[in-house]
Amino acid sequence: MKILRITKLSCITALLSFFTALSVANAAEKIVIKGSDTLGAKMVPQLAEEFKAIKAKQGIDVTFEIAAEGSSTGIAAVIDKTADLGMSSRDAKGTEISKGLLAGIKMEPITVAKDGIAIIVQDNNPMDEISPREVEKIFTGDVENWSAINGKSGSISIYTRNTSSGTYAVFQDMALRKRDYASSSQKMAGNEQIASEVAKNTNGIGYVGLAYIGTPGMKPLPVDGISPDNPDYSFARPLYYFYDAKSEMRPIVKEFVDFCLSPKGQEIVQSVHFISIL
Predict the structure, then answer these.
(1) 109, 92 contact by CB (below 8 A)
(2) Tens-place pLDDT, residues 42-95
(3) How does DSSP assign 109-125, residue by residue?
(4) Which of 22, 40, 182, 256 has a CA-to-CA distance to 32 between 20 and 30 Å?
(5) Category of 3 on φ-ψ map: left (φ > 0), alpha (ψ -120 to 50) or beta
(6) pTM for the whole thing?
(7) Any idea what DSSP says for residue 250?
(8) Confidence of residue 27 (pLDDT cuts 50, 70, 90)
(9) How far is Cα 100 from Cα 12, in angstroms, rounded to an integer?
(10) Of the candidates 92, 96, 132, 140, which has an alpha carbon nearest to the alpha carbon of residue 223?
(11) CA–CA separation, 173 and 237 (whole Å)
């Protein structure tokens, strides 16, 4: 009788261990990604959906938390350990690198795609291209009326990203030669808002990532005859995932990053009009 009780206890223990292991195997893996609207509005969600579908076929449930609120927020989230990956459309600043080191974080970038910051105007604007010098004059406020640029009178309405945006900082460095934006410029939360405002405003001008150049009612202007999806475009820049190089990346996060860099992942990058790194 004693042997029987021990056998029953062993079976119960084994069953509990089995169901515990099964529960762990079926538990959802979660990846948290924060930062750039340029990456996070379209490209990363599509990469995430395809990755989820691939893992689901393997019996692994993966969920994503994606917050696209600007490159600065992504880098900050890696430093305070609230995100696995920080999306950024700019390099990390020296102050951010130093802050990370003080917190025991070594910021490292992974280039996941390339983008061109497209200059956009409404379809009715008579211009069919623009020069770097004209871009600088408009966005710094040196020129305030279209008559000085395209011969058609009208006060220029400038739409930019907000100050937490990596695109805001990169464009200031590349196109404005680090000069201040015009005081009249209107700051928008994301690419979609800029495209929408320019499409509605005959006198509007702004800049967006390549994923938004097909927005109805507006058109991208080649700069010195070179379109924004050309690698030689004046305002081209890399897009990054930042991570903590001092900590081992979780296996599921590394799998996702590897997928993003794979031929299949880069097909998705191209499908939303960014430039592949392959």
Answers:
(1) yes
(2) 999 999 999 999 999 999 999 999 999 999 999 999 999 999 999 999 999 999
(3) EEEEEEEE-EEEEETT-
(4) 22
(5) alpha
(6) 0.81
(7) P
(8) low
(9) 49
(10) 132
(11) 11
